[in-house]
DNA sequence: GCTTGGATATCGAAC
DNA sequence: GTTCGATGTCCAAGC
């Protein structure tokens, strides 16, 4: 464990230590008054101010102000760091390819420089993701519906891979799309794409059900589901159970006859079970 | 401009300076060996290791390893920071509400503590966004198509606000969806939602055209557009012109003898003849 | 406060 | 390498 710290160093001192730290593979922080110019997928400039700059040994670059979780400027991993002193300023440049991008940081003054030996585990153990929700359902498919039988995960279609493909108690094909949090219109569209792909695959005469599984759904998404004859089941990704206070509110009276008189409608799409607690 | 730095401080020393720095509204960095526990929208644990922790005066919290642009753990702005010493460890806790979330960082040892007075501009001047693409088109609507007339931006519909609403030379309503980068299936679905909303609004007998404007499109998205009778125009958000080497590759104009014998001509705005069930 | 969609999104997995 | 969807996405604007 080593750390190197310079206080109000000259640019030459900073340059020297910077190059050594990059060589060592340290994580570097530079606090100072600087301007920032970015050119790549977009273009940006940032006027002078005191910021915290972080250079990681994997090439990541972060420029942080005193606000927000998101850096005001950055470079993802894979970029190359190079420092130089020009016109009385310290320039730190990060460049990468695919796409070609350049981030230039010009320091008027460096208040503090540190080189840190960052080691140790970086693998997070996380729980409550969409994958956890999927495992809950595969463990107990009746969470989706009594009689549901999962047949395949990541089943391919012309619209892309489906989260869970299976069939209901009657043998009707079902597409299940999982979301770990409250869903909006885009999730409803995504499910609709998969259902349409199966219709093209099987022919329109074959009934296909689409079920969205998530803790809750917005009103507009519920409308979209209903318009497309899709269904919704409320489940929490962490517990695999219906979210709190939903047990009594389920099966809110589905509307009587839908005007869609195809004859092959698989089941009532009671998508408005949620709609609550917006 | 002031900075406070401690090297290998005791937990008590760190605690003292930490509380003072939070009070002052400084940006704080703590480098040390720690574990991290998060509980909120999901749950996570991170085993011991040396990491760089950043506490911002707006409540943002970042835990960085030596890799990736994204922090391994974090808290967005608005959380409250509190530090304490327990069981020989320094605990830094960030809590927030809506949703309820807690981030706990337990330091076994602090290698370096810094409190920084981060000031100065934080407003980025950025160019090349979707908004810039929109301005290019509003300046010169023929970029989309000769005769195109924008009538409204952010026009509301039951499917949400459309980027640009207008009409073509024949007076046929057009929805234009803008993307600053290469688009995939979701953008095609989004455009389709808007077109469907206008069909419901105007009645299926009224033709409506949907046009996606982006630098390029993936194969699958192109298929989706075609299936739904939607169109694509290639434009670069920064220049407002067709992307490089696209001059010769005609966008809308298909090669003379297309094997597609559907009679599917986008210009005829044939969405209503298709009667898509979606 | 919730909803919606953009972002220099980043990231990872499948192809 | 590209494509695609998840993310504790974050974030701003609108309501």
Automatic annotation (TrEMBL), chains A, B:
CDD domains: NucS-like. Its EC number is 3.1.-.-. GO terms for cellular component: cytoplasm. Gene3D superfamilies: 2.70.180.20, 3.40.1350.10. Its main location: cytoplasm. Keywords: Cytoplasm, DNA-binding, Endonuclease, Hydrolase, Nuclease. HAMAP family: NucS. This is Endonuclease NucS. It comes from Halogranum gelatinilyticum. The lineage of its organism: Archaea, Methanobacteriati, Methanobacteriota, Stenosarchaea group, Halobacteria.
